[in-house]
Write a structure and sequence with these properties.
Structural class: mainly alpha
Largest sheet: none
Radius of gyration: 14 Å
Strand content: under 5%
Order of helices and strands: HHHHHHHH
Number of helices: 8
Shape: globular
Helix content: over 70%
Length: 144
């Protein structure tokens, strides 16, 4: 299995863990450990899963500050699954310049198609496009 496929699966598990954290307020370390113990992780980049989950929770307020200017509603009114995906995608845009912004957005859109509401992927795409333009303007401009 390719490393990119293992990373995709890590993102999928991370969105579920972040969602659980958002909904319950449980300790993220406990949630992360539970996911590793209770879910099949053989095809998952476990280290990346842990990096994503820990990174999003540690920087959630800074991530929200990047997302909120582009929302058409209050952040708490955004579907919790889509909110988790937006936070994850924004974390990758900020912290992982080695991953092209288009890959991050495409992965986020796929997560929204899998877990989000009917039109959630369009919303996630729209918001992350704007976040990427702000955070990675040089990369986005070079691509256009």
């Amino acid at each position: 299995m390719s490393s990119s496929s293992k990373r995709s699966k890590a993102r999928s598990r991370a969105v579920q863990a972040i969602y659980q954290w958002q909904m319950t307020g449980q300790n993220i370390g406990d949630i992360s450990n539970h996911f590793i113990a209770e879910h099949p992780m053989t095809r998952v980049d476990v280290a990346y899963f842990q990096e994503l989950v820990r990174g999003v929770v540690e920087r959630v307020y800074a991530l929200d500050d990047e997302i909120v200017p582009f929302l058409d509603r209050d952040l708490q009114e955004v579907d919790p699954v889509e909110r988790a995906i937006l936070r994850l995608g924004t974390w990758e845009l900020v912290q992982r310049p080695d991953i092209p912004y288009r890959v991050i957005i495409n992965e986020s859109v796929e997560l929204a198609k899998s877990f989000g509401g009917e039109a959630g992927h369009k919303y996630v795409n729209s918001i992350l496009d704007k976040v990427a333009l702000k955070l990675r303007s040089t990369e986005v401009a070079a691509r256009r």
